[in-house]
Design goal:
Structural class of chain A: alpha/beta
Helix content of chain A: 40-55%
Mean pLDDT of chain A: 96
Oligomer: heterotetramer
Radius of gyration of chain A: 19 Å
CATH topology of chain A: Rossmann fold
Number of domains of chain A: 1
Bound molecules: thiamine diphosphate, magnesium ion
Structural class of chain C: alpha/beta
Strand content of chain A: 5-15%
CATH topology of the largest domain in chain C: Rossmann fold
Largest interface: C-D, 54 and 54 residues
CATH superfamily of the largest domain in chain C: Thiamin diphosphate (ThDP)-binding fold, Pyr/PP domains
Number of helices of chain C: 14
Radius of gyration of chain C: 20 Å
Distance between the termini of chain C: 18 Å
CATH superfamily of chain A: Thiamin diphosphate (ThDP)-binding fold, Pyr/PP domains
Order of helices and strands of chain C: EHEHHEHEHHEHEHEEEEHEEHEHEHHH
Distance between the termini of chain A: 35 Å
Mean pLDDT of chain C: 95
Low-confidence stretches of chain C: 1-9
Number of strands of chain C: 14
Low-confidence stretches of chain A: 1-5
Amino acid sequence: MKTEESTIDLPALYHSMLRIRRAEEAIANRYHEQEMRCPVHLCIGEEAISAGVCANLTTPDVVFGNHRSHGHYMAKGGDLNAMMAEIYGKATGCCGGRGGSMHLIDNAAGFSGAVPIVGGTVPLAVGAGWSFKLKQEEHVSVVFFGDGCFEEGVLHESMNFAALKNIPTIFVCENNGMSVYTPLAERQPIRSISGVAKAHGLGVYTGDGNDVVEVAHLAGEAVAKARRGEGPQFLEFKTYRWLGHVGHEFDDDLGYRPNETPKFREDRCPLKRAAEELTQKFGWSQKDFATLEENVKAEVEASFQFSFASPDPKPQTSGDFTYAQ
Amino acid sequence: MKTEESTIDLPALYHSMLRIRRAEEAIANRYHEQEMRCPVHLCIGEEAISAGVCANLTTPDVVFGNHRSHGHYMAKGGDLNAMMAEIYGKATGCCGGRGGSMHLIDNAAGFSGAVPIVGGTVPLAVGAGWSFKLKQEEHVSVVFFGDGCFEEGVLHESMNFAALKNIPTIFVCENNGMSVYTPLAERQPIRSISGVAKAHGLGVYTGDGNDVVEVAHLAGEAVAKARRGEGPQFLEFKTYRWLGHVGHEFDDDLGYRPNETPKFREDRCPLKRAAEELTQKFGWSQKDFATLEENVKAEVEASFQFSFASPDPKPQTSGDFTYAQ
Amino acid sequence: MPSSTIDNASTEKNIREINFGEALQEAQYQAMESDKSIMVIGEGVADPKSIFRTTEGLVEKFGPDRVTEMPLAENGMTGVCIGLATSGFRPILVHQRIDFALLSLDQLINNAAKLHYVFNGQVTVPLVVRMLIGRGWGQGPQHAQSLQSLFAHIPGLKVVMPTTPYDAKGMLLSAIKDNNPVMFIEHRWLYNLKGDVPKEQYLVPLDKASIVKKGSHITVATFSHMTIEAIAAAQVLAEHGVEVEIIDMRSVRPLDMDPVLASVEKTGLLMVLDTGWASCGVSGEIMARTVENAFQYLKKPPMRITLPDHPAPTSKHLADDYYPDAETIVKAIVSLVDDEQKLPTQEMCKRVRRTSLRDIPNPAYVGPF
Amino acid sequence: MPSSTIDNASTEKNIREINFGEALQEAQYQAMESDKSIMVIGEGVADPKSIFRTTEGLVEKFGPDRVTEMPLAENGMTGVCIGLATSGFRPILVHQRIDFALLSLDQLINNAAKLHYVFNGQVTVPLVVRMLIGRGWGQGPQHAQSLQSLFAHIPGLKVVMPTTPYDAKGMLLSAIKDNNPVMFIEHRWLYNLKGDVPKEQYLVPLDKASIVKKGSHITVATFSHMTIEAIAAAQVLAEHGVEVEIIDMRSVRPLDMDPVLASVEKTGLLMVLDTGWASCGVSGEIMARTVENAFQYLKKPPMRITLPDHPAPTSKHLADDYYPDAETIVKAIVSLVDDEQKLPTQEMCKRVRRTSLRDIPNPAYVGPF
Ligand SMILES: Cc1ncc(C[n+]2csc(CCOP(=O)(O)OP(=O)(O)O)c2C)c(N)n1
Ligand SMILES: Cc1ncc(C[n+]2csc(CCOP(=O)(O)OP(=O)(O)O)c2C)c(N)n1
Ligand SMILES: [Mg+2]
Ligand SMILES: [Mg+2]
């Protein structure tokens, strides 16, 4: 994570993406064991957006997520053990088991929360951003959401208010062209999403969400602008969801994305692209990759072991925290 | 009301505006009697928009209003007696007294309803417009709303859907720069309202809402486009509300619109402007105006007499129509 | 897990066993065949999963104009459906979780519930809103609410919660025919429940409770999935001589109190089971109406079994006690009927106790939802 | 119109009579002086009418950053306030009518009520939502709803309805201090009610009912404006020897049942008065909890007085019978306590009958609202 306008640190970005990829692959691999008893919405294929945006944030900047937030949480520095334990419903989970995969939080890391009602966190991020402005702190708030979320009225209400008050909120639209199994064309007219945001008065950036360098670069500009007091910024990144909407499996068999073969996915793999650049421009060797893989694998595996070793929350604490003191 | 692309009929437009003006003035004059026991939001000063838009509609086209809908109702051909009786809470009112000034309807005239929740009728109009498209009828639906309504998420949801399905709905934004006593600048960033509508994929027209000829002309184009299957259109008209937000009085004393003197109003009076043109281009004499005034006055006065002579609804019918058969 | 079949068998020939979800699909399919004004609108109604297969085949048969995917815009699309409904169509709007409908309460409560009234009967709003109650497999606090009581507070709305496949089909057909906005609430755990359902169309009224089991010792008024739990509890209680009268309320608004009052007159004891929270909910409403109208017959204070007064936790460990079930009901009924403490409570509880994990509807279930 | 003053007089020196609206204004003013994190946000909070003067002077004193007009965007702005609340601020969001809050139930129910819970106590949502109940002068079906019971169904929310100026100030100060989302519901007809209010800050708890009048013959549990009507009814009944115990519930969630149960133990008779609808409402909830906990003391079935089960009509002629008042209460109490039919019901009713029109709070009132 960096403070100033970004000079891209590709190795760090790759590491960030790889952690997300391997963690989610491990979740997918173990999901069939029926021990992670909550819906999981995996972001495999979309890691560049989380990694590229969060690379421009400092710890006090806050990030809000949605139903598909493993990547957002991890890229912002959220505690992996606590996330994995949360998915396993353990007392050591980041919500003590109350939330599961769809509700993640790590206040220490500045990951201020994910909830699964689409659009639910968008105005919260604006409120948090406004708080920075009112306190005259130079932090930004960031909210990640999908192309489907762009249809919710609350997003437009939030953009209007953020623009009105010149609030340092970064709206990040992860446009994977899908809401569950419904393609964009059945939900929105042919016009640009970021065009609407621009008309609302936001600064706007669009880019290839599978290119982590591009994401990091555009996000760096947007974050710097917001920090300088130039108001809310909107980033739209085109990307592609590899797996089914929810769960651990590919769903090519459903036939709703007929063109999208394994090759289609591979061509768009943000890790593959970054790895090529690391090889070519940074001279990474096979061994460099292997070492990183080892480290990441160990970290991920440790998070599972942490979860398995963690205590279950007690049923009799189930009603705790209904009200604050 | 006309069927095809409009050749402006200024005498008819003037008549339409004058009816609204005189009816509302009469309401304002009698309001102090405390017999119209419901809030009234008068549109004095804004008549050109109702008159100009509705001049382009046929009876089967449907219009939806809001809290400030006397003008919309009258311009669409709503029964004046039934409106006045409604404001007086009489059994002969257009809602049998259930609605008052803020809930008006005249199905026979194609005025499909006004309700006071801001934004409440906007998606209804889209639904009605969609019904025309599904039934392959060449009618349009129209919804009138204010600049304040533009802030409600439901409006954006409605525009998105109307654009997606190419629905023949005309969105008419009566931009009087005020929501109650709060000016636009405290509610929306500096950017164009119609620019946002355009970005949503709607056809867009902006004009001077105090110039009935301009309104009629632009609305004529928009309605024709929608009828031809070119999808939803958005009309933004700048205008000015003469009286307080609610009630029968000027409220210059409140000081929230410091520049706005009686002269300011008169300069923007849509009737004055139309009258000048009638005199100059149509050769109307004092006597022509006087005759029209007489007719309108008689019609308005008759609506009061109708109301006074009408029976009160019975309290024991108060629960009727909670459910349909 | 209690028995997954309720017998509503009529004697007609063309009856066969299908499940609750299939019954819903069939109702919509047949209604749409008979009436061109019916439309189905929702997120996922035309996608490959077709709302857990309840809208399967509709778009293929009736085309995308009548079976329409919608943007994520619950309030706006509810308003659009109201506009369709006042313009001669009969839309069925579907929400995969009732929690999402919270975004649309403005249109439902301010408009759908009131337009017929305020416009003096000059418009009608024949709208059905299908809403699913999620449960288990870590649905968590925003995807497992059971919000029927919110809707049932509002005059102008009708609110129903069928339990059996027979009622699912018959009540959905009635809801579609009804000229009022009907909130049609489906508990996800009923979807695999099988039962006898006639092939042709038939109507089950939207304002009548159904006596599922006759009994003389205690009256149980129950809703939706809790009826299944009640039946399981009643079976084991019956083996020990306790005859429970089970009344599946079916409708939350209006409440059909007559069979409850008649039953309480006989049994003197009332227990209400609801899938939702207690506070300002329909369980208290039934108790209140019972004391208003049958006070003199009550031998003991009525009881209710509802969710505990907190949000649904996600972890299966925390959620394990969240949902009352047949065992809870057995214990509660024993506490009312067994003054002499002669019943083998432990044994009965054991008989109805789930063996599989409690966060899935049945042992065959494989996540995710 | 019943008496417009309730005596909550304490003996302290710096007490003077102000009205309900002024008490609200004073609470916000003083709280904002003591705590910089408090903000007031709403449509009209900084305009010349300042929410019927309840936010008067705030923007001049505390500036537009802390007293902020907002766009018409109820759901979004509720979310923004939640975001502020989880970031160290204590926002007070104001809706001129509770009906508008229906647009924001998603944020209130899905987020405000649940974030503290689901995030395991790691965030708090110290948010106050002030919402006004409209009544009379043709407010009509979308501007006169009394929706407290919807909110009170939801664990995680607190819901209060103060009646007196003293409680208005003390409970608003408590609500602001509270670390939970508090729905603060104000009946518009209370705004001109006068009462003794200390000048300095003080707290009235958010979970305690208040015994407004002691009595031994019947227990009346009541909310908000209905308390005023109950007091008027009780006065005339007292003159004929019927001593009504009036309990102003003050809080809808949590419900403080202890004084009700203690009173019913004494009187054996319960009547519940609510400003809203009956079905799945707080009136039934109080009845249910009373039978659950004090069944043996009840001599007769409890009664409730609520709005009729339909939307509010606009015309004063139709609305004339819509709102129950002191006369309704007198008649209902007589029906419970006067078994021997000795009370001069007609005469008592006449004494409490409004002489002015029923669609205005008092004869001095001049429309519009
Ligand atoms: C208000 C609301 N409506 C519907 C849903 C069901 N739902 C969950 S995720 C999702 C798709 C959202 O699409 P998008 O915003 O593009 O995010 P993606 O899943 O593509 O990342 C839907 C419809 C929900 N959770 N909340
Ligand atoms: C959802 C909702 N929020 C707030 C209000 C209160 N209200 C009534 S009219 C109005 C102003 C609306 O402004 P605008 O849309 O510009 O219409 P105008 O009154 O200027 O014609 C407001 C805030 C309401 N009726 N509905
Ligand atoms: Mg998407
Ligand atoms: Mg305006």
